[in-house]
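User: quick one, sequence for these tokens?
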């Protein structure tokens, strides 16, 4: 019985060893399969990474950031989208610029969803340019390039640059923290760029071991969570955070280093070269049209065209000239990022008010003055993104705009005076003047005998009025029109004053075929 029990135990032991061996073999097979599958997955992921981006474009952001550069940036983003780009590289070399435009560009990049965005900094991205870079998915820098120093400043009454007050700094700090957090960067680093008193530390989460950058207030708020490793020496101590490319990578503000564009191409494993979106002919044309001298010429010639059109009503050469000049003016400022359709609407309403004053409501009163004011305001608003300045920089810009517009107005008034004096003698313009009726039917009011028209003598074709003669205005004079002197209806003009139809007028000047009159009681 004992022998049988022993045999049974030996059999069970052999069976167990066999089962264990079988299980071990199965486990080895499963492990080998898992390793092979994992290698296959890793390889597929690697291949996927290599083919992640198929079309990359590069946009250069150079110089001071302002409305024109921001509008150029928007046009190039639209062009990149139209080309089907899935990787957009912004090559930034800028000392900064206006805060509003920098934040707008950063927000546009943060919310862009059709491509992966990279801020490539070969030299510098300071102030507003650093803020713009925070909106990109990746920041890649040359080892010696610089980024940061985004403290807001303003120009005081003595034209001295001052740091912005705490209220502005606090608001901007929240803006840049949000930009950094949206792209998984340490918000404290972004805040230190705009707050010169903020001290930042390299810290470790005691529970997870994760290392990141935290500001002193953030660590003090949760001392049980964070262990300070080392301070970020470039922060605090009355200076804005500014980092080199190497240092930015060390603190995880930047995602990598690249000396050249070829390094970028290798990093993102593009199948071909970048498409570099160069400034187009439109961009160059807009830049030329933004020259203050060209702007003044457009305004002067456009106003002269309106004036000529008012002298000779009807869509003629004056209206075409005015339409072309102001269309180019507003179009260039549309593309320059300062004008919008509201400005165009104000200008159109202003012109309509002037037409109403001259044609429907004779005289120069409230409607005409309103038209002049609307035109002036529309031109000012088209040249800048504000109407009432909020700081000295905007005040300086407003002064510059007003100087251009008032100089243009002075040039127009001089030209209008010369035209009113010489309008009838200029070869092109004298054809636009109203002419008296042909004297073949006589100058009297009786109906003409069409069957037997009277033949006018040579003297009947000549104007016989002289200085001091008084007549009746047969049409409104703005300043040209017609007046009756006895039996004659002739073309006359005023010195620029408006004379309604039916008023008595007196000849005050006569030079060749040009007759100047004034209203008399």
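Assistant:
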């Amino acid at each position: 019985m004992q022998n049988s029990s022993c045999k049974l135990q030996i059999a069970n032991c052999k069976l167990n060893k066999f089962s264990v061996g079988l299980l071990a073999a199965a486990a080895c097979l499963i492990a080998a399969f898992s390793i092979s599958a994992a290698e296959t997955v890793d390889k597929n992921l690697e291949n996927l990474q290599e083919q992640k981006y198929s079309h990359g474009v590069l946009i250069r952001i150079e110089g001071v950031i302002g409305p024109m550069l921001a509008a150029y940036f928007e046009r190039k983003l639209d062009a990149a989208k139209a080309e089907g780009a899935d990787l957009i590289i912004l090559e930034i070399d800028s000392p900064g610029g206006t805060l509003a435009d920098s934040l707008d560009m950063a927000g546009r990049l943060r919310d862009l969803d059709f491509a992966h965005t990279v801020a490539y900094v070969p030299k510098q991205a300071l102030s507003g340019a650093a803020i713009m870079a925070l909106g990109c998915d990746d920041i890649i820098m040359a080892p010696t390039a610089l980024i940061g120093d985004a403290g807001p400043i303003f120009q005081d009454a003595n034209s001295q640059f001052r740091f912005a007050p705490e209220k502005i700094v606090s608001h901007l700090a929240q803006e840049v923290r949000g930009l950094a957090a949206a792209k998984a960067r340490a918000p404290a680093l972004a805040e230190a760029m705009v707050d010169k008193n903020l001290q930042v530390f390299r810290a470790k989460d005691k529970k997870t071991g994760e290392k990141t950058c935290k500001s002193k207030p953030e660590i003090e708020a949760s001392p049980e969570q964070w262990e300070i490793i080392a301070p970020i020496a470039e922060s605090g101590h009355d200076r804005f955070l500014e980092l080199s490319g190497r240092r930015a990578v060390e603190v995880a503000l930047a995602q990598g280093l690249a000396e050249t564009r070829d390094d970028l191409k290798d990093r993102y494993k593009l199948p071909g070269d970048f498409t570099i979106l160069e400034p187009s002919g439109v961009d160059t044309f807009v830049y030329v049209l933004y020259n203050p001298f060209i702007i003044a010429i457009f305004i002067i010639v456009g106003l002269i065209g309106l004036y000529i059109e008012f002298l000779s009503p009807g869509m003629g050469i004056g209206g075409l000239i005015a339409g072309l000049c102001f269309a180019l003016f507003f179009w260039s400022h549309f593309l320059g990022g300062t004008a919008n359709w509201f400005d165009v609407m104000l200008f159109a309403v202003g012109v309509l008010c002037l037409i109403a004053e001259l044609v429907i409501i004779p005289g120069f009163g409230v409607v005409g003055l309103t038209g002049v004011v609307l035109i002036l305001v529309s031109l000012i608003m088209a040249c800048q993104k504000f109407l009432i300045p909020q700081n000295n920089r905007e005040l300086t810009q407003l002064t510059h705009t007003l100087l251009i517009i008032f100089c243009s107005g002075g040039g127009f008034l001089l030209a209008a005076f010369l035209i009113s004096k010489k309008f009838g003698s200029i070869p092109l313009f004298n054809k636009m003047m109203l002419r008296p009726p042909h004297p073949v039917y006589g100058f009297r009011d009786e109906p003409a005998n069409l069957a037997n028209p009277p033949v006018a003598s040579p003297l009947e074709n000549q104007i016989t009025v002289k200085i001091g003669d008084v007549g009746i205005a047969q049409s409104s004079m703005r300043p040209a029109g017609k007046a009756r002197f006895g039996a004659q209806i002739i073309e006359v003009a005023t010195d620029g004053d408006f004379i309604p139809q039916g008023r008595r007028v007196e000849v005050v000047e006569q030079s060749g075929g040009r007759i100047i009159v004034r209203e008399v009681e």
